[in-house]
Amino acid sequence: MKRMPFERPTEHYDERVLPIDEQICALLKERKDIANNNPGFPPAEQIAEWAKKYDQYEDVLNSIFSTLRMEEEFKPRVEPENFIKHLPILKSVEKNDKLYTITFIRQFENASVVQLNIDWEENTKDLDDHHHLRHISHHPFLALSLGENYECRQDSGSGSDGHFRQNYIVSPPIPDDPSGLKLVFKEYHDFYKGKSTGLEIEFHLD
């Protein structure tokens, strides 16, 4: 889904706060550097203490730190344009009773789209006894990495009983001859990639 462009909500700006706003930006940069871009989230009791000390609402502070935790979502996005062709891959890795497969990569002028398929044997008895399980995702967050030369982000996904499909947008485009590339899918407990589950799936292209 394409992100809507941001529109300034008001023309008003009290320029007396400009030095403070710049200092806030500098502190955000310092915060990222100190925490290696993974600061986590302040404890509830710390939020409550700051709210009281600095005359703020707790929900305002929670909103600010929640937004900072979602920073990756605000990066400029590359949207695939002008489809060129499919690159056949057909690679599979089996781990923890699940089969992970990449059958092809879609090539566009400005990006590539990697489609990861996950298949497993569904426990039909559990699903029959607990119908709500059919509507719950079976997978924590899987992040794709191709090394520092590529930007990868999770895009659309869908699934059904025993199958899940997830797309990833990669820029710049993967070469038409991807020999030597290694695609690493690392599993995290949630979308924010704070803590890894320890599961990694590697595909070596040749």
Structure write-up:
The strands form two sheets. Strands 1-2-3-6-5 form a five-stranded antiparallel β-sheet, with no helix packed on it. The chain has a three-stranded antiparallel β-sheet with strand order 4-7-8, with no helix packed on it. The chain is an alpha+beta fold and 206 residues long. The longest helix has 17 residues. The chain has four helices and eight strands; from the N terminus they run H-H-H-E-E-E-H-E-E-E-E-E. It starts with 17 loop residues before the first helix and ends with a strand. A hairpin with a 7-residue loop joins strand 7 and strand 8.
Which structural traits does this protein have?
single chain; 206 residues; alpha+beta; five-stranded antiparallel sheet; three-stranded antiparallel sheet; 22% helix; 35% strand
What best-fitting shape do the alpha-carbon axes yield? globular
The largest pleated sheet is described as: 5 strands, antiparallel
Question: Would you identify the regions where 5 or more consecutive residues have pLDDT less than 50?
Answer: 129-138
Strand order of the largest sheet: 1-2-3-6-5
Number of strands: 8
Order of helices and strands: HHHEEEHEEEEE
Give the terminus-to-terminus CA distance: 32 Å
Helix content: 10-25%
Number of helical runs?
A: 4
Give me the Rg, rounded.
21 Å
Indicate the mean pLDDT. 85
What fraction of residues sit in β-strands?
A: 35-45%
Kindly name the structural category. Answer: alpha+beta
